[in-house]
Structure formats: C-alpha cells, structure tokens
Amino acid sequence: MFETNNLRIRAVRNTDFEKIHDLWNDLRVQKSLSPSYVVPLGNKFEETLRTSAADALLYCIIETKDKGNWVGFVNLFNGDQKNRDAMLGLALCPEFWGRGYATEVLLFVVDYAFRELALHRITLNVFGNNAAAIKVYKRVGFVEEGIQRKANWSGGNWQDVVLMAILDEEWAASKGDHGE
Ligand SMILES: CC(C)(COP(=O)(O)OP(=O)(O)OC[C@H]1O[C@@H](n2cnc3c(N)ncnc32)[C@H](O)[C@@H]1OP(=O)(O)O)[C@@H](O)C(=O)NCCC(=O)NCCS
C-alpha cells in the first residue's frame, strides 16, 4: 500500500470491481475513458475489468486517508517490456473531482513507475475536450507527442485524441519542481 498526503493507493480487491463497474457506468466518466460506444455496461464488463486488473503492471484503488472514502482507480497497463513503456489510466468518482487528487496520485505513481518499476516512458491518450485531465497531465510533466485529428465521436462532435507521454529523464530533470 502507498500513501500520499491525503490518499491511500492500495491493491485492488474482489470487492472493488462492483465500484469500478459503477464508475464506468457514470457516463461522464465512461465518455472520458473510452473511444467506443458510450452505453450502460452489463455484467460481462466486470469480467473484462477483472482480466485487465490481473494483466496490469499496476492496478490500484485510491481512497481518502481520513475517512476511507472510495475515490477511484489508477493503473499502468499494456506494458512493453523491451522498451519499458506502459499506458496510464486514471478515473475518480465525480464527487472527488477538483480537489487536487488526480495531481496528487499522478505525482506519486509517475515517480514510483520510474524509481521502482524501472519504466523509461509512460504513455497515455486523452480526448482533446478533456481539459481537466490535460491540465493535470501537463502539470505532472507529460508532453504532447501527437494528435489524431477528429478521431473520436462524442456528444455530437468529433474530438481529437491527444497522445502524451513522459520520459524518465524528463521526470528526473523536473524533480526539483515538485519539491523533492
Ligand atoms: C480528469 C480527472 C482524473 C481529474 O481529476 P481531479 O482530481 O479533478 O484533478 P485535479 O483536481 O488534480 O486537477 C484538475 C485541474 O483541472 C481544472 N479543471 C477542471 N475542469 C476544467 C475545465 N473544464 N477546463 C479547464 N480546467 C479544468 C481544475 O480547476 C484543476 O486545476 P487547478 O488545480 O489548477 O484548479 C477526473 O476529472 C476524472 O476522473 N475524470 C473522468 C475520467 C478521466 O477523464 N480520466 C482521464 C482519462 S485520459
């Protein structure tokens, strides 16, 4: 289990999958995570979640330290062993948005990924209209590497898909900026 100022970042348990499923079924969250059809997801989806968690390099649940509230999940998946690259995923329950939790979690996870998991890159895709996520990723040090133009249909509009990544050397160079 990991701890940051306000949060615990712990291993996923069997009892978490219902909550993760519910989080995906919040359509505000699902449309930020998935380029597929945004639809209520039934029981079979929980099997998909369990498989993804089992296959992930890191799949953790985020809780508040003070009250033990269930906040969301963070993961590193699709690890490319040869190139030491992994994809980042993150989602929080909407009632916890805007408190700095995503920034707090990512500052820890990115540091851990480079320092302990020996990654060289962390990669992610984010939809161009997800201003909150892009702000957090840039603040943590992710750099925009490319754009797939109008690649996702959402809310009656085409959205760009933005590819972002951070390198171990960039993280090392920026560590002073994060007060370490
Ligand atoms: C994206 C997400 C992880 C951000 O979590 P969070 O804990 O609210 O993020 P933080 O509070 O650390 O930072 C969010 C920042 O974006 C800003 N922000 C929020 N909505 C915004 C908007 N519409 N436009 C611009 N900035 C916005 C906030 O003010 C905050 O900046 P500040 O700290 O300078 O005030 C959360 O909204 C979420 O789980 N969304 C659904 C899933 C998702 O999008 N995951 C990422 C997929 S790539």
UniProtKB/TrEMBL annotation:
Coiled coil: none
Any Pfam family the entry gives: Acetyltransf_3
InterPro entries: Acyl_CoA_acyltransferase, GNAT_dom, N-acetyltransferase
Gene Ontology MF term list: acyltransferase activity, transferring groups other than amino-acyl groups
Keywords for the protein's UniProt record, in alphabetical order: Acyltransferase, Transferase
PROSITE patterns with a match to the protein in the record: GNAT (PS51186)
N-acetyltransferase domain residues: 7-169
Name by which UniProt lists this protein: Acyl-N-acyltransferase
Species for this entry: Lentinula edodes
